């Protein structure tokens, strides 16, 4: 469903991605790992459409559509959803507003009508329970005054409500204690399915004990240096990244 | 100039007719009232209506009032169904005025705690006019503005609230001012007089609303006196019809350790001017001014506030937010004055505005006038753009740019509403703001969903 | 600042208070058409200039002095002022420094004005105004080579009438305000700067004004034009000797910046503020305005105001050109019974225009000070931005500090931010300094200098030192 071909990206004039190629099919969970500064977060940000990233060559297509030509919201409406490493606080905008507006936008893009309020509320409450979150949470402003763990849960909650085709989760494990990690991982695992792809970006193998990926890619210096299955992640955990870096250089 | 003259004399003429008629039908008024009317008329005649050359009216043109031909009414007829639709869903001690005329039918005081009196001004005068004559006009004299002079000349009805020392009114006191559409525009000059005894506590809700076709002129004067330790929360929810002209002068006097909190929420009215002044006369007194105004079409909304720190260790805190669309114009003039020897003062002021259209305009003037050195005073004003990062975050959720802007605009107003304790008021205003936001923002249904959740 | 410098500054008397004994040629007090004709004649002006002045005079007669400022002073008797005073021998003006009256040079020495090349800081040309007539201009030759015209306005009227006709009164129209009209009728001297297309003025230009003879008004007129891509930095410094009578000063400064031009105008003003009872002192009513006519042009005002009994001054920018920039950096210090009402106007007309305002006010003694500013965003000023920071510091409980910022915003894409604070010098800061062995007065001066840092760093180096020194002189006796 997602095809990234020979992608080159500059940030503030500096080349970060240098010919990255990656294919994710429906039903697969991919993990991108790599040392700091390898360009892991850049990949998901470019796919989501963040400003300040200049694509100098290469392509990104999603279900045959040119992602780079799409507006930020069109990407989300098409089913490409990014879970932030550092979710933004939006004072005054209630979570329930964000969820409803986002869901409506998606349905509208698909030519469906708005979800009736009772149905919507039922859906949201179910998902809240799944994420072990209290209903009062919906009336709070998006991420405002949330703890690190609450922010990450909120990202997953949005995924559960919006049901993206491809969920990209950027360092979703950072800043989580072990209990919160389980809740988040359970949430992500519940998203797994025939129709859905998941892209995990992570520095540590730890998360992959909970969400076992189908494919693991090691990103070094702006391109994928090595790919393998879940076993590769374990190898990285015990051996570190240096051997991949050396292998690439060789 | 003869034009200006005829404008003033039209009002004075009406006053003369009214007085003569009243003397005929009700007999002579107590002499102090007659004397004040005379003083008000004389002052109004001397001042005339303010013009743009007067600094306090630099951005507000009141010719729509000056040129108006407003009748006075004695009728309190109003459709009960309309009234029910307009009223705030609030369990309250309620007084209702129709174009300034008291309506017993639409009033319901319920059971008031002992030591608490809430009554129409006419009744208070009839029962004991001397008890009213002392405080009435003590804070807002005829010199304050041409409008306070005009009000004093015409005043007849309004609300008197007396809170005995230590009394606590749990339910809000709701003063409803309904504007009625009729063949001819009318004017009213209501008075609100609140005497809050020491350590008393109450919530006052002043609600201005009416039939959408109405085009009347309301010229209100409110005097709120807070004795030692009194706590008063004052909501002024102004949802007057869009052709209504609305001028309000609100003076607050605060003794030691009293706390006054004002929510000045302006959504309606064609031409609106609010003057809110607090005299912080005793140590430990605290004034909080929160305001929200939303203008669209050709609405003109002017808010002037003044915190007079007349005593040491007094505090004022202000936060006003304005949203202006279409060709609407907003004015914010907030002033903090610290008198000589009023040391250990804290005065904070913040004003933020959003323009949604290039033909809208905001004129802001946050002023500090300080004659003592041990003070912490600051003000900040911003007019401008929404947080780009927040817009991006919303768009990554599939929310389009316009809706994202809409949500953030609603959130902008939300910062004031978050402080509102009365759900009936905050929900009403939030819905109104969501409803007023341009269609391009696609916010329909959002707030309702939130409220539905709340009601469960 | 080194301690001996501090020492030097710690003097109670107004430092610049002495009177130079030079025979003046002065017209009797009073103003009518004949006085204007006399001035115009003295200056050897062409007929059209006299007509311009007379027209301005008639305009002035129809106007009334402004009363909106937060100032309190007795009405000025304009018929009691003498409108012309010149040092003797105007016809045979000195051609070089050697020919300059030694007494004059001595005066400048006492003021510490670096007029001599020895003393002059490298690269500073000085067009010195003594009372009303330009006495000498140095470095003229070097400027001439670069194509820069730097001369007195009187010379410019004679030598460059086309430029004068094209620009004079186009930024500050005659009828702009009461004082501008008066100035237009009776201005006697001032500077003229013209920097042609693409030229960066090779040195900083500087004028020191001085009011000398008793009861003479000073009405300078300055006009600075930077053509496309040109740049200039202009410094204006003012000192005046001590006098009992109030002296009126009503200058007009006009700046014009065409496409990509940059004008930086810095002022240090330390005219006599009057004594501690409010006796004497200069009345300073100045109209300064820059017109960013060209796209991407930039005009920057920096001022350090420590003198004058009454200050009424709002250096402003009209941001007409696309993406043009206006700046205003101000430190104003008032002590004794001084009163200052000062600030700026930023008028955003063009798209993408930006303005920055940093105002630091320090009130001490029984003085009163107001910041008055206007930020206006016109309907066509798409994407305009303004940032204003406006801080007041109070020293002592008998002074006043006031802030009156006006904002008129008519474009939805504009971003305007205004922040203001008023506070006294932190007792904990004072205590900290004192506990390190620093005297209270020195501690205050250190803290105040820190408070003003954002503005001082905008000043050219030599001015920054002078400004700090002046600040300390002004604040003498403010504590304790």
End-to-end separation of chain C in angstroms reads: 21 Å
What is the total tally of β strands of chain A?
Answer: 12
Question: What best-fitting shape of chain C do the alpha-carbon axes yield?
Answer: globular
CA-based gyration radius of chain C: 21 Å
Q: How much of the residues of chain A is beta strand, in percent?
A: 25-35%
Proportion of helical residues of chain A: 25-40%
Percent range for helical residues of chain C? Answer: 10-25%
Uncertain runs of chain A are none
Broad structural category of chain A: alpha/beta
Whole-number radius of gyration of chain A? 18 Å
The SSE string of chain A, one letter per element, is EEEHEEHEEHHEHEHEHEEHH
The first-to-last residue Cα distance of chain A is 33 Å
Largest sheet of chain C: 11 strands, mixed
Shape of chain A: globular
Main interface: chain pair and counts: A-B, 42 and 36 residues
Write up this protein.
The complex is a heterotrimer of chains A (250), B (456) and C (480). Chain A has helices spanning 40-48, 72-77, 95-109, 117-130, 148-162, 178-191, 207-210, 230-239, 242-249; strands spanning 2-11, 14-24, 29-33, 53-62, 65-66, 80-83, 90-94, 141-142, 166-170, 197-201, 215-220, 223-228. Chain A is α/β, with parallel strands linked by helices. In chain A, strands 6-9-10-3-11-12 form a six-stranded mixed beta sheet, sandwiched between helices. In chain A, strands 2-1-4-5 form a four-stranded antiparallel beta sheet. The longest helix of chain A is centred in the middle third of the chain and has 15 residues, at 95-109. Chain B has 456 residues and is α/β, with parallel strands linked by helices. Chain B is built from ten helices and 20 strands. A ten-stranded mixed beta sheet of chain B has the order 2-1-5-8-10-12-14-16-18-20, with helices on one face. In chain B, strands 3, 4, 6, 7, 9, 11, 13, 15, 17 and 19 form a ten-stranded mixed beta sheet that branches. In chain B, helix 8 (401-417) packs antiparallel against helix 9 (423-436). Chain B starts with a helix and ends with a helix. Chain C is of the alpha/beta class. Helices cover 23% and strands 35% of the residues of chain C. In chain C, helix 9 crosses helix 10. Chain C starts with a helix and ends in a 6-residue tail after the last helix. Chains in contact: A-B, B-C. Strand 20 (375-383) of chain B pairs antiparallel with strand 23 (415-424) of chain C.
